[in-house]
Amino acid sequence: MTAIASAALASPAAAVEAPVIVPLQGLEPVLPMDAPTVATGVPVPMPGAPTGFQKGVGALPDVTLPSVPLAGTLPGTVVDAPLPELLRGSEPGSAGLSSPHSEMRASTPGAVLGTPVEAPRGNGLAGIPHLAKPQLGLLTPVLSGALDPQLGLTPDAG
């Protein structure tokens, strides 16, 4: 039973991307060359635990809407476009752009709301809380990672 549960939980984590091949063959009648090929994937980000739940100075936490971290892998992408024959008898080959898999990390935006009431001034037992000035802040989204694309020309194999 435990093995089945661990296999069920492991299978979504193993699927980090959904492969996509862009069909461009319909462009061949209008292009003066063969259609390029594009093979890539759609990343499947894995959400983490929300961050930012800290206890504030008052009774309410400082962070009202926490940021949610996301981690994923950008899929490898290959674009191969045959070059048109500009000079008669030349073998132009093809232009290629490739980008390998790369790890990416991100976090969603969040919001910070200050406490709406302040502690009583003077003797804490003989007063009522005062209303505070509204304070609102936004936590910016974050995206980090590194891409390593490569562009090149390859001679025709013929």
The proportion of residues forming helix, as a percent range, comes to under 10%
Overall shape: rod-shaped
Strand and helix order: HEEEEEEEEEEEEEE
Largest sheet: 5 strands, antiparallel
Strand content: 35-45%
Tally of helical segments: 1
Poorly predicted runs: 1-15
Order of strands in the sheet with the most strands? 1-2-6-7-14
Content-based structural category: mainly beta
The Rg value, from CA coordinates, equals 28 Å
- On the 0 to 100 scale, the average pLDDT is 76
- Gap between N and C termini: 57 Å
Count of extended strands = 14
Question: Would you mind describing this structure in some detail?
Answer:
The chain has about 160 residues and is mainly β. The chain has one helix and 14 strands, in the order H-E-E-E-E-E-E-E-E-E-E-E-E-E-E. The longest helix is centred in the first third of the chain and has 13 residues, at about 1-15. Mean pLDDT is about 75; it is low at about 1-15.
List keywords for this structure.
158 residues, mainly beta, 5-stranded antiparallel sheet, 4-stranded antiparallel sheet, 40% strand, rod-shaped, disordered N terminus
Fold topology:
Elements: H1 2-14, E1 17-22, E2 37-43, E3 46-47, E4 63-65, E5 69-74, E6 77-82, E7 94-99, E8 102-107, E9 110-113, E10 117-118, E11 130-131, E12 136-139, E13 142-145, E14 150-154
Antiparallel strand pairs: 1-2, 2-6, 3-5, 4-9, 5-8, 6-7, 7-14, 8-13, 9-12, 10-11
